[in-house]
Amino acid sequence: MKAPSRNRRPGFSRRAQYGLFFSYVIAVTGILAGLGLVVAAHFDPTGFGFIKGAALDTTAPVSTAARGVVRGAGNIVDGIGAYFYAGSQNAAMARELDRDREALVRARILALENERLRRMLKLVETRGGSIAVARIVGSTGVSSRRYATLDAGRAQGVQPGQPVRSPEGLVGRVVDAGEIASRVLLITDSASVVPVRLARGGAPALAAGRGDGSIEIRPLGAGGNPFNRGDIVLTSGTGGLYPPDVPVAVILRKDGDVAVAWPLANPAQLDYAMVEQPFAGLPPPPEPAKH
Amino acid sequence: MRSPTSSAPPTRAIEVRAQVVPIVSTLLGSATALVPTVALSPTWPPIGLLMLLAWRLLRPEIWPAWIGLPLGLADDLLTGQTLGTGMVTWTACLLLADLVEGRLLWRDYWQEWLLAAIAIAFAMLAGWAIACWTGGATPVRLILPQVAVSILCFPIIGRLCARLDRWRLAIGKIRAQD
Questions:
Q1: Which of residues 136-155 of B touch A (CB under 8 A)?
Q2: Which among A66, A207, B52, B165 has the fewest CB atoms less than 10 Å away?
Q3: Residue contact B131–A145, C-beta within 8 A
């Protein structure tokens, strides 16, 4: 046990009393200023981008350096684990390879057919190329928002608002960009909404993050829940920003009117992600020919 | 008081160290958010906040109440929360500690932990409310495990601060046992 406030009581010294009083005045004023910052963030989430970008630039190299160590350690554990199931895994993979080979042939035929149909329609692909390929070096594990840090910034051409994807699927979009690092709002964040469509049938839907690593898929069409377990949803490109036909998530279960899905690009296992040009939106349909 | 031994650092260095160690350790606590893991849900305890509370409860005299403003701002920038979250919640925690201490006649281990637990829960729920209001409405059940883990972590961080405090003041080397 100890006395609660050592040297904290000012006693009869006027100077000490004033000092304590002013420290409280500063503290309360600071709280009000902090609340002002929060209000500013509510109305302008991209505000103070310069300060946030500078902080990202100074902190990202720490994560980048440490990421290699963590990955190395994780690879060793995975490598040891792989030996235990080598036989059964080999058999399963051989079966999968056979199946995939057939699917690949079918896909090639479809790709050729697609190409031919596109030429017939004179459809022009206006898809922006990728701007940067960068490593995902960390995320915010403390805050309840879901952000990841990318080790490419304005110097590589990354700007806030650009979509980020990986070979497996959509990752999110850039919200803050520093000179050499940027922050990505993951599609699992509850502020992220992505227009999607069902790969099987093309029913339109919205994919909203739930903040716990899963995604909620809300169908736009009225009546019935068109999703089944295992269905894959793709971006639809509606409204621009996210390019169409990027895989987003796989449906885990139905939940009333909505479905719960898991992102295909698991950010915890991601190494590299591509920053792309924002999609300009689909071109308007051609004017109907007049007779 | 023991006489300074030859291995003890000079007094001037200790004075600087005494001022700098609490601030640097709190900043390092905030910087643990930089560990390169990509978390799918909030899991990591806010070690910066735990350090701040541990220092405040261990040594009420080292910091004025407004120290929560710069340290909270640094925490916001390091962890990527909405700017202002740490400034508001950390300073409010320090004011809360001042308010409670003015009314308590004595304090023991359990009261200290209880006070810290209330402050941690308040700060994290306020941070969650701010995150919700600025665009990321997550269900509150997601952060409750994080709050519980943080409260359970507090005694460890308190021990760490006590160790750092002994080193910072060179207690047992040039100062008497406190």
A1: 136-139, 142-143
A2: A66
A3: yes
